[in-house]
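Allow me, if you will, to draw on your knowledge of protein folds for a short while. I have a record of one protein: its chain in single-letter code and its fold written as discrete structure tokens. The full record is reproduced below for your convenience:
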Amino acid sequence: MAVLNTVLTAVYRPWGVTSAITNWAAGAWSLLGGHPECWTYYQIRGLPPLAAPGPWLDRILNDGGTLLNLGVVAGVLLAAASRSEFRLKPIRSARQAVWAVVGGVLMGYGARLGFGCNIGALLGGIASQSLHGWVFGLFVVVGAVTGTAVVASLYRPKADGIPLSRNPRANAEMVPFSRKESPPAP
């Protein structure tokens, strides 16, 4: 993947995911009568093809990021289907859905603040031989370790006393500690 991204950087630009998603939002906003050209982001970068005038399909086909993202989604679906691993999973609860949406919004907002996600900022940064890619990677690891520690301190399995790795059903059904009880000793 790194080699392909390096080639893509040489012939087009580094691969990025969130810029295309931002452009989708700008295109949808312009269809609803909004003016994304007034957003500071587009005053700096210029208006994307998706927000430009013209037929919607033409705008999609003129946005390279959209085509890259759609290609990745199609490739992942084909890979999963070829290994017979593709399946739709039901949402277990409204709480799970809310946390998924909150997490997605926070990740998307963070990616826009940082002008890139792990694809654009990490792989694109390393492929373009920029120091920021390596710095981004270091802080991704720091954030992952910190986030895991925070989640582990807030949640525990319902099946008390059974380590998470030995009880997969308990792994999926995590509940927060009440304020009165303390987490189990490690």
Summary: The chain has a mean pLDDT of 76. The chain has nine helices and two strands.
